Amino acid sequence: MKILCGLTLIFTVFCANADSSIHSLDFKESLAILLERSPRFDSAKKTFEIQNLNAVNAKRSWFPILDLKLEHGLKGEDNSDEKKSGFANALTLRTVGNLYNNGTDLIRVDSTSLRVQMEELNLRLEKERLTFELYSAFLRFSDAQYAFEIQIKQNEIINREYKNIFELYQQGLKPQKDYLRFKAELKRSELELLSSKNLLRKAEIEILKILGLTTDSDLDNYHIEALPLDLDYVGDLPNTNPSLFKNLRYMVLGLQSKINKNEALIVKSQNSPEITLTTQGSFYVDDYLKGKQYIKGNKEIEWAALLSVKFNLIDWGIADRKIEAAILQSYVAENKNRDEINDIISKNEALYLDILEKNSNYILSKELLKVEQKNYSYIETDYREGRASYLDLIFANRDLLDSKVQIYRIFFELKQLLAQFKLLEGELYDSFFNK
Q: For the purposes of burial, counting CB atoms within 10 Å of the CB of 143, is it exposed (0-12), middle (13-18) or buried (19 or more)?
């Protein structure tokens, strides 16, 4: 009795959020916090930025490089005729450009562009995964919250019946065994209520830990809001497997295959006659600090445009073995990608079957709940009119409680499967903001 009153008071304060210092978090607000604080998502963003920088560098590698070199210091000469020493300075301006090198730069530019696309997909994929992890935790919390509310209501019913039995027992209208049975049932209900409350708290702490709010003050100052419950609409059910071509991981594997082929091409090009076209130029002045008139008469200007052809005459088969190893490595990587693609296809098929099965269970659980509600109503009436025993009433109450808990559990499990379906098609995050 005292335990029930205490739990009811705690739950009332917990739901009402009467303390102004407690901050309530719904799913969308929590998701924003997660994406802002997650080290995984931050690493994915930085990796994407790194690949963008590499892609720009690959394209700019064709542009001529301009270097300026200034020298100052002491310089001396000791010849047979005369000795010279003193302060010296020099200016050198040099430019070098590599216009063509067997096409390897073109392949590297293509590979860096593919890596940019791949990391952009990985960034989206990480966002989708974090969204799914948080949403799954919210589903577990919501299930625990509604189950706790059911436990409170059921406990109130048992407590009311216990009071009635106790009064009838004191009046001598009910035997002691009825009184003791209801008292034991009340204690059992209070234990289940305590267990349900602990499960709810653990589910809330799980969400706060995902958000990185792990200090004692965080655990006390934040309250999680359960997801809305509508038993009449669980979500749009798919009529086929998740699309393989929408799967972000499948797209990443496709880009990785192209990069692997490019790496093999680069190794192959190294065994061909190496043709390079380079340009270079330099401007040199000794003692440039003496002024313009001195520079005009003492400057040195050089330039060149060179076409070089390099042949590998004898390397004892090293280059050929490198090419063969690169080709074999690309085959190994391709086989690994195919295995992962087959795994994706298998999981897609299994998920669709799980959704169909869980939806059938959900429909049956709704029908079962209606039956149990009617059954409890009839037995309660019969019990009050003396046509049913106290055991019939206790068992009917337990069956009703189990059917309520079951329908909520199946409801949230089906919601999680539908969220996983959207995750596999890369549409989970957007589905919460494009409604």
A: buried
Rounded CA Rg of the chain: 38
Residue in this structure with the two tokens 């379906």, named with its chain if needed: 421
* 25: β partners: 224
Surface-to-core class of residue 382, CB atoms within 10 Å of its CB (0-12 exposed, 13-18 middle, 19+ buried): middle
Q: How confident is the model at residue 283 (pLDDT cuts 50, 70, 90)?
A: low
Q: Which of 65-79, 115-129, 273-287 has the highest mean pLDDT?
A: 115-129
Average pLDDT, the chain: 83
- Dump pLDDT digits (tens) for 85-121: 556 667 777 777 666 676 788 888 899 999 999 999 9
Where do the domains of the chain lie? 2-74+88-431
Per-residue 3-state assignment (H helix, E strand, C coil) for the chain = CHHHHHHHHHHHHHHHCCCCCCEEECHHHHHHHHHHHCHHHHHHHHHHHHHHHHHHHHHHCCCCEEEEEEEEEEEEEECCCCEEEEEEEEEEEEEEEEEEECCHHHHHHHHHHHHHHHHHHHHHHHHHHHHHHHHHHHHHHHHHHHHHHHHHHHHHHHHHHHHHHHHHHHCCCCCHHHHHHHHHHHHHHHHHHHHHHHHHHHHHHHHHHHCCCCCHHHHHHEEECCCCCCCCCCCCCCCCCCCHHHCHHHHHHHHHHHHHHHHHHHHHHCCCCEEEEEEEEEEEEECHHHCHHHHHHHEEEEEEEEEEEECCCCCCCHHHHHHHHHHHHHHHHHHHHHHHHHHHHHHHHHHHHHHHHHHHHHHHHHHHHHHHHHHHHHHHHHHHCCCCCHHHHHHHHHHHHHHHHHHHHHHHHHHHHHHHHHHHCCCHHHHCCCC
Average pLDDT value for residue range 410-419: 96
Say whether pLDDT at 8 is over 60: no
> Domain 2-74+88-431 - what CATH class?
mainly alpha
Range with the lowest mean pLDDT among 181-185, 288-292, 346-350? 288-292
